[in-house]
């Protein structure tokens, strides 16, 4: 609530003050007006928005959601008061604390569950922390939503969204993002490099059309709950083990033939991989990509990773940096890039999760996982152990 006037008891004298009352401070803050206005910002006055910048104290009084005509009259009166116009010519009021009915509490939550209720002509409250807009037939994310800097929870489930703008990453407080049941075919690597790395804890991408997630996905290291059910995933993120805060993972009813080697590093409370067409592992039929002797490039790349030599695009071509980022790890702990032996072995999922949803209708809790070997010697040692343990 904004008022222009004089404090009680000063009807015949004293200066003119601007008084701002809010739901948290109904008593209000008073600011002297005469010769104390630094600047008026009125570019969006026709939309009911304006800002009055004061000199002492140095604060901005921001107005929004006002009637355009009333706002113009109010700003005109403030301008005249600033210039020292005779008080008798100004529409002043007595400045008293606001009543509960006169101030609006900041709205922090809004739930919209139909296209009919979706606001088309007015803005969302900037104070929103939780916004749900489901069953609204949205084909894209409303740019007005991306201006809600206090947003912590965004639920856009059950819409027709095909693509995510990189500017979602500007929502620096966003902790939960629900995109269940949309038409997404990808998840942008730019989002993974944004401030979501530090804030996002819950992500629901279930029931979309995603075939793969980008390499950068595992930079979202604050993720605790990740839902990927009912997509078209042919693989999980290569470095998924980097998600060391992840506790709940569901990727049921996808097209996963096996799990990445890094899957072993996870420490989950609940895991659901039901309904994937997992291949039957066969350690005796390796996929040999080993080149002997190793190329100079392979030797240099392995040394860079093994000895943790610093690198970056200012030192190496970007494609080499990308190759190093996806270096594979042998059972011996050494790195390998394009020269390796690959097999799949069986892993009991209880090794990485406390609660495991059955993988199939037969009651199984095992799934194939990729293993890499940097040399024939490493593969031979594994093979000896495997043959001995299997009689």
Automatic annotation (TrEMBL):
InterPro entries, alphabetized: Leu-rich_rpt (IPR001611), Leu-rich_rpt_typical-subtyp (IPR003591), LRR_dom_sf (IPR032675), LRR_domain-containing (IPR050216), PIF1/LRR1_PH (IPR057437)
Assigned GO CC terms: cytoplasm; nucleus
Pathway the protein contributes to: Protein modification; protein ubiquitination
Residues of the PIF1/LRR1 pleckstrin homology domain: 2-93
Keyword Nucleus: yes
Tagged with keyword ATP-binding: no
Keywords from the named record: Leucine-rich repeat, Nucleus, Repeat, Ubl conjugation pathway
Gene3D superfamilies attached to this UniProt entry: Ribonuclease Inhibitor
Main location: nucleus
Subcellular location: Nucleus
Residues in coiled coil: none
Summary of the function given for this chain in its UniProt record: Substrate recognition subunit of an ECS (Elongin BC-CUL2/5-SOCS-box protein) E3 ubiquitin-protein ligase complex which mediates the ubiquitination and subsequent proteasomal degradation of target proteins. ECS(LRR1) ubiquitinates MCM7 and promotes CMG replisome disassembly by VCP and chromatin extraction during S-phase. May negatively regulate the 4-1BB-mediated signaling cascades which result in the activation of NK-kappaB and JNK1.
Summary of subunit composition and partner proteins: Component of the probable ECS(LRR1) E3 ubiquitin-protein ligase complex which contains CUL2, RBX1, Elongin BC complex and LRR1. Interacts with CUL2, RBX1, ELOB and ELOC.
Protein name: Leucine-rich repeat protein 1
């Amino acid at each position: 609530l904004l008022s222009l006037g004089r404090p009680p008891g000063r009807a015949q004298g004293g200066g003119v003050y601007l008084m701002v009352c809010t739901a948290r401070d109904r008593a209000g803050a008073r600011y002297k007006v005469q010769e104390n206005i630094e600047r008026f910002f009125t570019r969006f006055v026709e939309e009911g928005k304006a800002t009055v910048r004061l000199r002492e104290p140095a604060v901005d009084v921001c107005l929004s959601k006002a009637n355009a005509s009333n706002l113009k009259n109010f700003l005109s009166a403030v301008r005249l008061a600033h210039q020292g116009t005779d008080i008798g010519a100004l529409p002043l009021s007595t400045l008293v604390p606001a009543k509960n009915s006169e101030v609006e509490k900041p709205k922090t939550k809004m739930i919209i569950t139909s296209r009919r209720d979706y606001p088309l002509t007015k803005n969302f409250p900037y104070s929103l922390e939780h916004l749900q807009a489901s069953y609204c037939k949205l084909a894209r994310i409303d740019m007005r939503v991306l201006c809600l800097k206090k947003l912590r929870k965004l639920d856009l489930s059950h819409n027709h969204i095909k693509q995510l703008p990189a500017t979602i990453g500007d929502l620096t407080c966003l902790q939960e993002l629900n995109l269940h049941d949309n038409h997404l075919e990808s998840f942008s690597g730019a989002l993974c490099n944004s401030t979501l790395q530090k804030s996002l804890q819950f992500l629901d991408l279930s029931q979309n059309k995603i075939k793969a997630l980008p390499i950068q996905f595992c930079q979202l290291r604050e993720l605790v709950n990740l839902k990927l059910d009912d997509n078209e995933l042919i693989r999980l993120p290569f470095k998924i083990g980097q998600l060391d805060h992840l506790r709940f993972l569901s990727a049921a009813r996808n097209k996963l033939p096996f799990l990445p080697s890094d899957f072993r590093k996870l420490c989950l409370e609940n895991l659901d991989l039901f309904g994937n067409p997992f291949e039957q592992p066969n350690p005796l039929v390796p996929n040999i990509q080993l080149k002997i002797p190793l190329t100079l490039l392979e030797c240099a790349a392995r040394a860079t990773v093994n000895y943790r030599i610093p690198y970056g695009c200012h030192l190496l071509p970007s494609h080499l940096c990308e190759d190093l980022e996806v270096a594979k790890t042998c059972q011996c702990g050494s790195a390998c890039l394009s020269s390796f032996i690959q097999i799949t072995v069986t892993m009991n999922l209880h090794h990485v999760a406390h609660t495991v949803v059955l993988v199939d209708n037969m009651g199984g809790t095992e799934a194939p996982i990729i293993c890499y070997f940097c040399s024939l010697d490493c593969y031979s040692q594994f093979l000896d152990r495997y043959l001995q343990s299997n009689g």
